[in-house]
Structure to design on (436 residues):
């Protein structure tokens, strides 16, 4: 998309655009509930013309970022289908055999790894050796409070919710993480009670940055990981923690091993973006208001996420034009400092999730909210990733539910979206986990 086209889109009447989105919201709220006949269709608002732009988030709405990147709002996001030589991928086979591995390799340089190396295996024992703290019978499910050995010396708190009086199973399962401040039990209230009462096994938890080993706190947890495992960014460590939880769930007779989903809000919605891209065991992912722009109105730069400014010996960017950033994650996220906007961005991770279904839920319909919510500016990232899903002929598997429910885990439009999404992709028409 040219700058002239982009600016033309920006000149459209925002009020008219918003009106069209609100019409979509009304339709979404009325129709998104699962139907009794035929497969459930996830219905999301139709994007208004302003939202068709594929440009970066506006840096003026990102006062917290250490890399403001002036002018990025007028710079197109690079399409995941575009090769470095400018040629465009034109077939599914090219995507899976060439372009997808190339993008994934770039992200592996950034993340370090998404699974332990052989020398690290000693820290990962039998994940089924859980500690049961208590068991309670609810009306429609059994509630088990337990601790799971994510590492040999790190037991993390979880709730396991098992359907009760709904047959013997096995059932599809959903791993549901909490956000920054509430504890690991909060997802039971948000989503778990509904899911467990409607034929899903649910495992709730929180990120490893809560009480990791000796509870060093989130601002120092990165150093604890690096000291033990080397270059393994906390965000990537979260993905492996989810894989450990999958391993535990698959040991349970109540669980359908090939029908496990993940959902999260805020902090864990950010995790969901990386789980969707790099956790092959998760076949359906819901991310509620992560703020999809990597360099946007939220804090992916923090030490407990991507740790942008940390130097790693493995990152060889000795010729980077900004000396103080050589060897850092930021030098890999933004390799071309002359071009506004990071070249590596989260539309690439949404694309890497294909062919598995992914639902992004946004809480704002303003333009560039700037306060952790996915808003109208998020459509650019979604639309770039959608190009990949459309090329593969599976466009319906990537959805963006744009709402006015705010930065919340639940809401009148948020709830029908994830309910119908899991109904379709975990119960009615699941995609095989190993599909590639």
């Amino acid at each position: 998309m040219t700058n002239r086209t982009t600016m033309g889109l920006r000149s459209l009447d925002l009020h008219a655009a918003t009106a069209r989105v609100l019409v979509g919201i009304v339709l979404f709220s009325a129709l998104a509930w699962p139907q009794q006949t035929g497969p459930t269709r996830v219905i999301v608002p139709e994007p208004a013309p302003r939202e068709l732009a594929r440009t970066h988030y506006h840096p003026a709405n990102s006062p917290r970022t250490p890399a403001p990147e002036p002018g990025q709002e007028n710079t197109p996001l690079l399409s995941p289908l575009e090769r470095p030589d400018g040629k465009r991928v034109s077939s599914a086979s090219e995507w899976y055999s060439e372009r997808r591995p190339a993008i994934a390799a770039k992200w592996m340089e950034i993340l370090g790894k998404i699974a332990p190396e052989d020398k690290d295996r000693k820290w990962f024992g039998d994940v089924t050796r859980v500690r049961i703290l208590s068991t309670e019978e609810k009306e429609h499910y059994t509630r088990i409070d337990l601790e799971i050995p994510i590492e040999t010396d790190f037991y993390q708190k979880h709730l396991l919710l098992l359907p009760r009086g709904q047959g013997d199973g096995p059932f599809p399962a959903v791993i549901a993480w909490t956000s920054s401040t509430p504890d690991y039990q909060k997802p039971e209230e948000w989503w778990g009670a509904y899911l467990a009462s409607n034929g899903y096994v649910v495992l709730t938890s929180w990120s490893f940055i809560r009480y990791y080993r000796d509870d060093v706190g989130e601002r120092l947890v990165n150093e604890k990981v690096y000291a033990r495992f080397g270059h393994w960014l906390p965000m990537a460590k979260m993905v492996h923690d989810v894989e450990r939880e999958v391993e535990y769930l698959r040991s349970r007779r109540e669980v359908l091993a090939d029908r496990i989903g993940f959902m999260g809000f805020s902090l864990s919605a950010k995790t969901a973006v990386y789980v969707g891209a790099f956790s092959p065991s998760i076949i359906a992912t819901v991310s509620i208001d992560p703020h999809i722009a990597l360099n946007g109105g939220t804090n992916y730069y923090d030490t407990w996420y991507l740790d942008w400014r940390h130097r790693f010996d493995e990152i060889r960017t000795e010729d980077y034009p900004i000396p103080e950033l050589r060897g850092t994650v930021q030098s890999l996220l933004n390799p071309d400092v002359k071009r506004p906007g990071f070249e590596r961005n989260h539309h690439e991770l949404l694309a890497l999730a294909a062919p598995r279904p992914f639902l992004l839920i946004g809480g704002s319909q303003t333009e560039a909210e700037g306060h952790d919510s996915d808003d109208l500016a998020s459509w650019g990232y979604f639309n770039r990733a959608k190009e990949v899903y459309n090329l593969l002929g599976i466009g319906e598997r990537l959805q963006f539910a744009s709402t006015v429910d705010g930065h919340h885990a639940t809401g009148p439009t948020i709830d029908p979206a994830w309910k119908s999404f899991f109904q379709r992709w975990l119960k009615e028409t699941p995609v095989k986990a190993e599909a590639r």
